[in-house]
């Protein structure tokens, strides 16, 4: 039960009567990606009401190193994930029984990697001892370390990084300690499956009276700027059904240049599907929003943000058809953050991030070796 509804937040009445309330605390929810979203999806499936603790900038800096995003940005990002019912701002880095009881939670959920304090202690030791801890599976193929590595390297081969010697050399410097490779920090190749898309997708079709809104773009490194834009789009109608068209990687590279996108189209699909303001995603949407697409989805509105609209390959306006129909609108979300800005944050703090991840892995390796010795001693 929700322990008689106790908690420090004013919660909705319908919360009473839930059978199982649980608390999920990520390592920091810095650079929220589809791996975090998948952790929260799994956590929500273990109970009925999901409370998510998010750390302050100070806590992350103390135990891990400088965060990429501010705490205000991270709070908003986590709130936008559709499996989250409530967040606890400024959650303590070490989860205790008092933390769970304060927020009326039955148990705590975390991924199957280990999270350590600055002193190398397991942050979940107390709740594990008392049987109020559960694990969900880590999502293969992504980590904050990996995404930061992609941004620092910015090579056209970063989507096939396992076979790229330059990338491997970079990760050796960026994420490896002097004595080996931590099983928790290592990144394996991401393999998209239809089952994973089904797990993330809402599965809901438009209903009579819904306003069908179409937006398109790269939505690379899905971030708070995207969330603010999609929230603004969602609020345009009383019953919105928001469809996001995601461009293929080659198309994004054509109009954004450099070495974009950072995340491939499969990764970007899951990131967008996890957002509570999104109903459907078109994977590999055509760059020009043409007649066929508008008619197929019965689109009522086509929205673009304040960012630049790049012309199509033939120099034509990709929004010519919706403009002709009078259904094109421009929305100002009030947030000017771009993927370029995030990359710049990483580059400016490169040495700090490299030191942060090397320190993190060294601590993980020490714990892993201790665990191995303990198992070997018991045999």
List the helices and strands and how they pair.
Elements: E1 21-25, H1 34-45, E2 49-54, H2 57-63, H3 71-79, E3 86-89, H4 97-102, E4 107-111, H5 125-129, E5 133-136, H6 144-153, H7 165-175, H8 194-200, E6 211-217, H9 224-234, E7 240-246, H10 249-256, H11 265-273, E8 280-283, H12 291-297, E9 301-304, H13 320-325, E10 328-330, H14 339-348, H15 350-378
Give a structural overview.
The chain is 39% helix and 13% strand. The protein is α/β, with parallel strands linked by helices and 379 residues long. The strands form 2 sheets. It has a 5-stranded parallel beta sheet. A 5-stranded parallel beta sheet has the order 8-7-6-9-10.
Name the overall outline: globular
Low-confidence stretches: 1-19, 161-188
How far apart are the termini? 40 Å
Multimer state: single chain
Main sheet? 5 strands, parallel
- Structural class, from secondary structure content? alpha/beta
Question: What string gives the helices and strands in order?
Answer: EHEHHEHEHEHHHEHEHHEHEHEHH
> Strand order across the biggest sheet?
3-2-1-4-5
Q: What's the pLDDT, averaged over the residues?
A: 80
Discrete helix count:
15
